[in-house]
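Morning!

This is the sequence you dropped in the shared folder:
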Amino acid sequence: MPNARVSDHPTTAVRLLDDGTVDFGDIWHMAYHMTGFHRLWLRPNNHGGTVVQFNSVKEASAGLQAFKRAGHFDVQYIYPPSFETEPVQASEPSPALYIRLMKGMTETAMTKILKNLRGLDCLKFGDNNVKVFFNSVESATRASEKLYQTTNIFSFYWHPHTDDGGYSPSNHSSTGPLSSRTLHVSKLDRDLADLRAYFYRFEDPPTRIGFHRGYIFVVFETAEAANRALARVRADTSTTMAARKVEMDYAPHFVPCPVGKPLRTIMLSYLTIAPTKEEMTRFFSGYSGFVSLTQGKKACFATFETEADATTALEDLNGATNLKAVYRTPEYSKDGVLKAGPFTPEKKPDPSAHRKQLPPSPPPVVNTPTPNSGTRTRLVTAERAASILKSMKKPDLIEANPFDVLEDHNNDEKDDEHKDEAADRSMDSHNGTSAKRPLKPPSTPTYALAAESGCCQGGNSDGRNARARRRERRAGLGSGEGTH
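The structure's back. Tokens below.
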């Protein structure tokens, strides 16, 4: 959490500087049972003091007054802290948790905090750590999540090893480091870059290095590789580092969930280390394409030549160390304070892009009734209509919609037939014929009849001959040949 900044107006967070008569367990118990309690950051006075965050300003004001009435605290409003990303557990589930005791935390205070966790079996305190055993994996998982959500107490699943491979809370005293794959190395005499180079020169290089202030965890592929590395460090007279096997397989407690949209710059958070700019510049110089580094109080920003170089470094940091890296660019606030730029989520691929392409649609069809065929229909496809147009010697219209062209052609022919019928009735009336000829009902589309009979191959000559005979008959009636 960043250093708390005092606020001159009410906020949702308050800072506590205690008088030394209360421990972290007492502070946690008071804060946890206050109305609107959200989260607690336990820190000694010389590290900024404890911070308590509430759900609203009104509830924070009530909490501030309650702490003042207790008489053990100097209380002030501060700007609410926040986390960059939402972390998740990185190691495999286990019914036991490992918690490293923070500065100012005592065994009595930790017991006050942990004693009411559901499913708790027992506690085993060691040097600066406590192993917490539960009656099930579900209870351990629930406790780990609760501790992270309400405090700054980080726990990770503990996987003890025994000579016979057995484990239960009742026989935890028999656990040993013989089958562990992890070394704990202290009394460090070199910086991060040299530490990584030192262990990566081994015949069996480590799979992960966990960097912390004053010590590191080095994880190997097998217990045998860890044993060989232990013997080599102890036999090396050029270093003052002290190495030992630990009774757990180390894994970083949390890894960042979203890393953001790929950029040329990545942000590395200083959660467990406090390096200088020169040290981090040497560390990043081991990655291809490294260009420059911008140093902040709690993080640094490393810029690379390409996004691919930045991605390679980010994946190695998140996969082979305990250092958390995300894609971020540096920005400066109005008062000149370096901060992280806006988070840009990575665009998720469109799942529809991987779907199988549908086959092309079949050619359009037209259902047209066939003359004198009852309910039977005949299908005329676009290819057949184009063939009809071609037979009608209209190749220039084939590229257009064949059905539209044929429909226009049919309408023209029907108009001609109606004109001929009207002329016949006019001629009968002139000759004194009283019988009226009814108009013919709309005929079947010509292209359907043509497709049925195949007469379009002749250019529809039957229709033209019938019209010619009618014209000749009308011409004969007009000249007097029709009366005797």
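Headline: Residues 402-430 form the longest helix (29 residues).

More detail when I'm at my desk.
O.
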